[in-house]
Specification:
The structure is a homodimer of 327-residue chains.
Chain A (H helix, E strand, L loop, with lengths): L11 H11 L8 E2 L2 H7 L2 E6 L9 H10 L3 H5 L2 E4 L3 H13 L3 E6 L4 H9 L3 E5 L6 H12 L2 E2 L6 H18 L4 E5 L4 H13 L3 E7 L4 H8 L22 H10 L2 E5 L1 H15 L9 H7 L7 E6 L6 H8 L7
Parallel strand pairs in A: 2-10, 3-4, 3-6, 4-5, 7-8, 7-10, 8-9
Antiparallel strand pairs in A: 1-2
Helix pairs in contact in A: 1-8, 3-5, 3-8, 5-6, 8-9, 9-11, 12-13
Chain lengths: 327, 327
C-alpha cells in the first residue's frame, strides 16, 4: 500500500498535481447558480454539481488520482477497496479506465443496485457479514494475498488531493468567494477542498455533517479524534465513525467551523434542488445546500460542493415522503 | 396581435433571427451524453436539456422572441396568454425581463404551484371555470380591453422560430446527426426544430406524442388537422387537442414521422433520466427519450430535445409509483 508520510500536511502542490493527472478524464462539472436561491439567502451561491461527475460523485477524483500515481507493476496487481458506496463505484470505474482488476469489499446486505453498479464497471465484488466480520481485515487480507494495492476511502493523501480538484474548478468558475461549504464524512473531500480554498485567498471553510454523526465537529472542538457508533442518518455517504488521522491534521489547520443539519433539512434541500435546479442530489450531496438554505452560512459569495447524486428514484420518493398513490 | 402571413412557411432565417434576439438572454443549455444510454441503444445520443432553460422549459425561447419583436408601443400595453403550463410561466418571465405587464389566463383549478410560479415573475393571473368558460374568448376579451398583445402558445410564427433555436444550439454542439427526436404537442417546438434540422442537412425528424393524444400522427397521416378530446395522459405539456394551422403546414413539409409512447414508457424514461443522468424531466420532457429507450429511433447519431423539467417532487413520486413509506 502506498502511504505518504504524515509529518507534512497535504499541500496545494499535491492538489495541483492531481488536477494535472485528472485533466481530460474527469468531467468538468457545472457550477450552477439560481436567482431563487440567491434571493432567498441574500448572497450569491456557486454550486459545484459533482452529482454530474463520472460514477455519480466527487469520489472519482480521488480514486482515479490514487490509481494514476501507481507504477505499472503496482497497477498490474490490481486495486482493492472496502466500500458499499460511492468510493467503491469510483474505484471500480478508475480501475476499468486503466484496464486493471479491482476488488470491492461490501457487506452482503448492500443494496443490489450498488453491487450492480460496481459489477457494471467490471470489478469483482467480495461480500462479508457486517455483523460478524471486519471489512478492514478482509480488505487487508485480500490485498496481501493478491499483492493488490488497497485504496482507502479518505485517509490517503492521493485521495485527499484528488478530491481537492473540485474546488480548484469551482474557484476558476466562480471567482473569489468568501465562504466554502463542504460535506464532511471521513474528511477526504474537505481536507482537499480546504487546501485549495485557503491557497486561493481569505476563504472561510465550513464543513457540514448530519446531526446524528457530528464526530468531526466534536473532534475539532476537543482537538482529538472522536469515534462514534455508526450514525443513524439518511446521509449514507457520511455514516463514518470517525475522521482519519491525515484528514484531521489538515482540518485542524484549514477548516474554520463544522455545522450540522438534520435529516429533515437534508430532505428539504433535496426537494429544493429537484424542483428549482432540476437536479438530483443524494442525501449527503445536499447537506451543504441544507446549511445554506437554513441561513447558517455567512458571506456575500458562497461556494458549495454538491457532492453526489447516487440515489435511486424509489429511495428519493421514500425519503422525501412525497410518494403515496401508485399510478 | 402580430401575425405573420401563412402563405410562406417558417424559414431558417426566422429561426436565425430569433437566435440573435435570444443571444445572452436564454441559457445555452447543456447537451448531455451518457455511455450507458449509448450502449443500450447502440447509437450516440445527444440530449439537449431544456429542463435547465429559464422558466424550466424551452417555452421561454418562443415567448421571449414574441415579446422582443414587438415595438415599444405594442409592448407598453402588455401581453396576454392563456396557459396553465409552461407557456404561461415563460411569457411571465419574458415580460418581466422587458419590464412590461403580463396577464396569464388559467383555469381556477390549476395547481397552486403553477399559479405561484407565474405570480412569482410578477404577472397577473386571471382564472376561469374550465367547464363553463372558453379561455380563448377570455384571452381575446382581455386583449381587446387592454389593447394587450395575445401571444398564442404555439401557432404563432415568432413562437415557432424561437423554439427552433434549441436545435441550432444542439447541432452546434453535437455536430452532424442522422435523426432528431422532438416531443409534439401543438407543434411549435417541432416546427421550429425541423426547420433548423432540415436546413443543416439530411436529418430525419421524428416527433413523439403520448399514446392517448396521437392527433398529430393522425393529422400527418390523413393530411388534415385532426381534433381530439383533451387526452388523458401524464404528459400535461402535450394535452393539446390539435396542432395549429401554421405548425401543421411546416410539419407536413419537414417532419418525417410521428411515434407514440405510453405513459408507462414515459415514467420509465423519467426514472432513467433521474438515476443515470441525475436530471429531472417532466413527463412531456421525457417522451423523446422514451422513444429512444424503446429502440424505436433509427440512426447512428441521434439528437433529442428534453423539453422541460417542471414537475414537483410529489408528483414525480406519484407518477413513478415509487414512494410509499413516509419517513
Amino acid at each position: 500500500m502506498i502511504r505518504s508520510g504524515t509529518a507534512s500536511l497535504l499541500s496545494i502542490d499535491d492538489v495541483r498535481a492531481a488536477a494535472a493527472r485528472l485533466e481530460g478524464v474527469v468531467h468538468r462539472t457545472p457550477v450552477m447558480t439560481s436567482r431563487t436561491l440567491d434571493e432567498r439567502v441574500g448572497a450569491r451561491v456557486f454550486a459545484k454539481a459533482e452529482s454530474f461527475q463520472r460514477s455519480g460523485s466527487f469520489k472519482f477524483r480521488g480514486a482515479y488520482n490514487s490509481v494514476a500515481i501507481l507504477d505499472d507493476e503496482e497497477r498490474g496487481a490490481g486495486v482493492v477497496a472496502y466500500s458499499s458506496g460511492n468510493h467503491g463505484q469510483a474505484l471500480a470505474l478508475a480501475a476499468s479506465l486503466f484496464g486493471i482488476a479491482a476488488t470491492i469489499v461490501m457487506p452482503d446486505d448492500a443494496p443490489s443496485i450498488k453491487r450492480a453498479a460496481v459489477e457494471g464497471y467490471g470489478a469483482k465484488v467480495v461480500t462479508y457479514d457486517r455483523y460478524r466480520e471486519n471489512r478492514e481485515e478482509i480488505g487487508a487480507t485480500l490485498s496481501a494475498e493478491k499483492n493488490a494495492v488497497l485504496i482507502p476511502p479518505f485517509d490517503h493523501r492521493p485521495v485527499m488531493a484528488g478530491q481537492g480538484t473540485a474546488t480548484l474548478e469551482l474557484l476558476d468558475s466562480s471567482g473569489p468567494i468568501d465562504t466554502l461549504v463542504v460535506p464532511v464524512g471521513g474528511g477526504g473531500l474537505i481536507s482537499g477542498s480546504a487546501t485549495a480554498a485557503k491557497d486561493a485567498g481569505d476563504v472561510r471553510v465550513i464543513g457540514v455533517e448530519p446531526e446524528a454523526g457530528d464526530d468531526a465537529r466534536r473532534s475539532l472542538a476537543t482537538g482529538e479524534i472522536v469515534v462514534i457508533e455508526t450514525p443513524r442518518t439518511i446521509a449514507d455517504g457520511q455514516q463514518t465513525t470517525s475522521v482519519g488521522e491525515e484528514t484531521f491534521a489538515v482540518m485542524q489547520e484549514r477548516v474554520d467551523e463544522i455545522l450540522t443539519v438534520s435529516d429533515d433539512e437534508i430532505c428539504d434541500a433535496m426537494v429544493f434542488a429537484f424542483e428549482r435546479a432540476k437536479i438530483v442530489l443524494e442525501p449527503s450531496g445536499a447537506t451543504g445546500l441544507a446549511a445554506i438554505l437554513r441561513g447558517s452560512i455567512p458571506g456575500d459569495r458562497i461556494g458549495v460542493i454538491l457532492s453526489g447524486g447516487n440515489v435511486d428514484a424509489r429511495r428519493f420518493a421514500e425519503l422525501t415522503g412525497l410518494g403515496s398513490a401508485p399510478r
